[in-house]
Amino acid sequence: MAVKKATIDTLLEEDRIFHPPEEFTQQANIKSREIYAEARANPKIFWAMQAERLDWFRKWDKVLEWNPPFAKWFVNGKLNACYNCIDRHLKTWRKNKAAIIFEGEPGDSRVLTYWDLYREVTRFANILKKLGVQKGDRVAIYMPMIPEAVVAMLACARLGAPHSVVFGGFSSESLRDRILDAQAKVLITADGGWRRGKIVPLKHNADAALAETPCVEKVLVVKRTGQEVSMLDGRDYWYHEMAEETPTGCPCEEVDAEDILFILYTSGTTGKPKGVVHTTGGYLVGTSTTHYMVFDIKDDDVYWCTADIGWITGHSYVVYGPLANGTTVLLYEGAPDWPNPGRFWAIVEKYHVNVFYTAPTAIRAFMKWGDEWPGRYDLSSLRLLGTVGEPINPEAWVWYHKNIGGERCPIVDTWWQTETGMIMITPLPGVTPLKPGSATVPFPGIEVDVVDKDGNSVMLGKGGFLAIKEPWPAMLRTIYGDDQRYVDTYWNKIPGKMLYFAGDGARRDYHNYYWILGRVDDVINVAGHRLSTMEVESALVDHPWVAEAAAIGKSHAIKGQAISVFVTLKAHAFEQLKSGARQRSEFQDELKAHVVKKIGAIARPDDVFFTAELPKTRSGKIMRRLLRDIAEGRALGDTTTLADPAVIAELKRKYESRES
Ligand code: WT7
């Protein structure tokens, strides 16, 4: 029985508790648990107090206006995110403090102080103005992990122009769709970026997208890799050329707390990515507060979050949270295993990194590459570690704790999402005892529950749906241009109750610790990033050979989940496969490459299996759950709703014998 099993699991986990080291607690930003009770007693006062860490041009009239499920935080407050991340630090000793320490993949290095950042950002903002950007205009950013990417985001924020950062690993088609959805007026890109010694041809990819995005009037191109790229007269401009003739110094737009700071696209259960909308005031309060408390940030820390700025982790914990706190942020352009698997640890040693935040998928890769790599470097500067993106398996947690943290660094396992904007479930490293594999407890002021399908709390020890009960400052405000989808996706899943539905399964143990069990919807978590099964399937059926496709996530030792696809070929292609006119591997490689072209390398299926039929319900819905059972080699779950039970039995037999 599920209940019993969960109870046993819980007891097993309870065996390993890591208490905060006393020396850590003594120096911690948060030393006492009282903060939880204080925040719970009056969350609005708690958040209003946290909002004081920002500079406001005008104070808010009201902390929260909640018309479920639409929230307004810090009503009528006026501020500017860029001002909070740069200008205000210039009035303090931090003016000449390192804001960004950059390490390029080829080994080049640059340091920008807060004053340097001010000059770069204001000049960049002036260039954007010349290109016609005004408050409210959307700007797309498709960049490698170089300082100019951060500069571009902050320049947009300075002008009150919402940015939409598109991860540099996404394909031209993904870029095109995101540009069109946001109706971006300007695109900021680079000639390329470095990844494993090769050039990622960003401008080249962007050109393909730009052929179909009439909304884009101007393109600003940063020179990074230096190869020849094509520049369209009157549309494309080199940043370094514009910079020569553009002055620094540019006033900050005063924006409303509820004005959009950015849009960031994320996968949902349907093929169309969702433009998650984050606004300015609440987002900055939420990210700066969590950054300060969860990462225990100190003014002399070198802080390194390895996420790309194309993901929410990069927005919240590379750019806005840390810079609002005046932190020194390390930025690394390339791959963790270039030129060898010791690169990350070489960087930690070189810059004396103190706080390090990465993803379980990376940790599992380091484990595979071997203990000797971290063993070669001096990692004694590290004092705190973090993880995000998916559940961390206890073995990986313990490895990280020992081999990277030298058994002295607490690990903060932080649960959150693109939509939550800020960390939601997490230890506070000076006060929360850790259990490997658990994200522990909700952040102060955050009310979470585990509920059944009717929205009732489930008993401790039992699994259910993770739900958030009260609005929080960095919550998404809507899906760009689609309020109804916002309501339906997050707030209408549990009828009659105003609960935010995260789409994750979870269980709470007898200490009220949360254990995230993974996604409950048709979303695959590959290397800590969400992809919808639908997106992969639409990419496949776009290929002339494919009649129908089903994508699933299959457990993977490093990536957490890898994509497996089941494909039904059209008759002409199927003939070629059967007759041997074309090799099976040729079909597989072609379809994998097609998905990469449509979405990007992150979506490359690991496995393509051909089948004449897919298991469907009587209403024609593909039962991916059964395909998952097959791919994982498990006994088949409930098959009673299948239109034709014979299909699945045959498919299972063939899959196991690897024929199709
Ligand atoms: C999904 C959100 C937020 C940053 C990166 C991913 C999973 C995230 C954890 C964690 C277990 C986690 C969840 C969540 N997830 N952090 N600490 N433990 N699972 O952002 O692409 O919006 O994905 O990532 O399934 O719903 P995202």
CATH class of the largest domain: Alpha Beta
Into which percent range does the helicity of residues fall?
25-40%
Helical segment count: 22
Number of domains: 2
What sort of overall outline do the alpha carbons produce when their principal axes are compared?
globular
Helix/strand structural class: alpha/beta
- Rounded mean pLDDT score: 94
Placed side by side, the strands forming the largest sheet appear as 12-11-8-6-7-14-15-23
Termini gap: 36 Å
CATH architecture of the largest domain: 3-Layer(aba) Sandwich
Unreliably modeled segments: 1-14
Biggest sheet, open or closed, and with what strands and sense? 8 strands, mixed
| CATH-defined topology of the largest domain | Rossmann fold
| Oligomeric state, counting identical vs distinct chains | single chain
